[in-house]
Amino acid sequence: MEKRRQPRRRGVARAMAFEACADCRVRAKALCACLSDLELVQLDRISRHKHVEGGATLMWAGDEGVVCGNLIAGMLKMTAFADDGREQIVGLLYPGDFIGRPQSGELLFSIMALTDSDLCLFPRAAFQTMLDDHIAMERLLLRRTMLALDEARQRMLLLGRGTAAEKLAGFLLEMAARFGAVPDAEGSVTIDLPLSRGQIADVLGLTIETVSRQMTHFRIAGLIDLPGGRSVTIRDRAGLRSRAMAG
Amino acid sequence: MEKRRQPRRRGVARAMAFEACADCRVRAKALCACLSDLELVQLDRISRHKHVEGGATLMWAGDEGVVCGNLIAGMLKMTAFADDGREQIVGLLYPGDFIGRPQSGELLFSIMALTDSDLCLFPRAAFQTMLDDHIAMERLLLRRTMLALDEARQRMLLLGRGTAAEKLAGFLLEMAARFGAVPDAEGSVTIDLPLSRGQIADVLGLTIETVSRQMTHFRIAGLIDLPGGRSVTIRDRAGLRSRAMAG
DNA sequence: GCCGGCGCTTGATCTCGATCAACGACAGGC
DNA sequence: GCCTGTCGTTGATCGAGATCAAGCGCCGGC
Lengths: 247, 247
Fold this sequence. Notes:
2 copies of one chain form a homodimer. By secondary structure, the first copy, chain A, is an alpha+beta fold.
């Protein structure tokens, strides 16, 4: 019903590419969850949809962050770089997650699409105004930021003190939880990882080779199967859990 | 000269135990910075001062977080534990920093005093109400939480990808920046670390021995002096910086 | 079909930091 | 004074994971 209000960069076809806010796929998960349908219209007015292909970089560390927004579909990574090229993925973003700093400034981390992704972006200043007018949304953003902080700190324990096996086991369980398909007859779950081995290594603070070897170890131990490509079948979730770090 | 003003927990003396909010030592740095003198009175009404000795634990991971507040003086650490006892310090808290989660729930990290510390605590629910009524304070809290998140992520790069030397050099520079006394005639700065070698190791994801050895290396390289105790004199800040990770 | 490139795996070796162990410096108790 | 415990330093050795190197499977281009 709000179709005509859809942001459009060119052509009518694009108007069909995304649902209106009211039937947005992440309506219930994103920040917007706390807005009434009426308020949504207001938000809609300043929003702009964007599609990025897997591999494309959305924002570069060092740039001025002029937009923020919600991830609607797909998966993004946030990466910190050392000046000699070493990198560490400091966060993974899933549909419904909020992106950017409404309040300020220079970006510290680059954001890149792991898979084809759809975003709903707002000019920073306009969104800040929106937050000012909708305390509930600001409150929700605060709560989420605190959750993200807790998560980051939990990951510091893993990065600082975890073994390679613990890191990978934890990662696989997280992926399984995120993409949890229904288990098959034997209780196995197959997931198609959106990350390459190198990217997994960058999440876990390991090297490609170590990730690959640990995968093999888990396979030989009967915990997982590696049917090919980036697929992983989790055959023994309890076994994996016992190898993950219990924080 | 302020000896008599030492904290006490009940009775009339308590009113005298700490300065009034208006001349609080962290008045300009803490969350309260955004409140008017009038609003401060309101906040004062729900606040409770507390003194903790160095080494004491303020909150345990797993507990219900029933208070939050500001650190007035001293230094605290936040620690994440693995169930087998491994630990990782996930954050250091300085005067003016905010402690706790106004919104919710079970604490994920333990908070322990590194030095004798003074706090200004609020019952969680009352503080939440206060936030509701003072949007500016909530906004400031949001901004700070985001800064803390950026900091945590930056530290993930160091933990995941940094060498022992990079970790320690970065740590010493951070300490120097925090406790930056005026340089002496030769441009050296001496700081008295509030952390033991073991605690430094827990911040950096290293062992005591590695921290100690790196200290010795830096000393032999002429970057620092170790006059004894927990003192460190930084003789060559540029040299240290060149060994720290440039993010 | 063949070729070239990329991502993944596997093997061999190396190295940094962990681990194990001993010892010295210092503080508190008595 | 002596004993004991804690903290920090240093040395010897070990080992997990990094690094170096080779090869395989797969896909797209032509």
